[in-house]
Design brief:
Largest sheet: 6 strands, antiparallel
Helix content: under 10%
Order of helices and strands: EEEEEEEEEEEE
Low-confidence stretches: none
Strand content: 35-45%
Oligomer: single chain
Bound molecules: zinc ion
Number of strands: 12
Radius of gyration: 19 Å
Length: 112
């Protein structure tokens, strides 16, 4: 079941896999299949074509080659790092003052 507990720009820590222990900001979230893209995590070599075209105003070529690009990983492999206690935690939910759902740290109960 997809979890909407992780959001873009969250700081997360990778708990499993070859990038275990790495921390990074969430770049993209794919809520439909519960996957996230994390800055600097799950890098894969990707071939990039040279882009652009020569025009009268000069050449604006973007050099192609091999670059490192992040891949989507399963959101269940990462945990949000709580800004309050600094520990990776599962995210809980609680009703806030105006009945709005807020995310809380399961460890220290602080709002995330
Ligand atoms: Zn906490």
């Amino acid at each position: 079941m997809p979890s909407a507990n992780i959001r873009k720009d969250d700081l997360v820590k990778v708990m499993t896999g070859k990038d275990r222990g790495k921390e990074g900001r969430v770049l993209r979230v794919s809520p439909r299949n519960g996957r996230v893209m994390v800055d600097g995590v799950a890098l894969a070599k990707r071939h990039v074509r040279t882009q652009g075209r020569r025009s009268s105003g000069g050449s604006q070529l973007k050099q192609g080659g091999i670059v490192d690009a992040e891949m989507f990983i399963d959101a269940s492999n990462v945990q949000v790092v709580c800004p309050s206690c600094g520990r990776p935690t599962r995210v809980g939910r609680r009703s806030g003052p105006e009945g709005k759902k807020v995310r809380i740290c399961r460890k220290c109960e602080a709002e995330i």
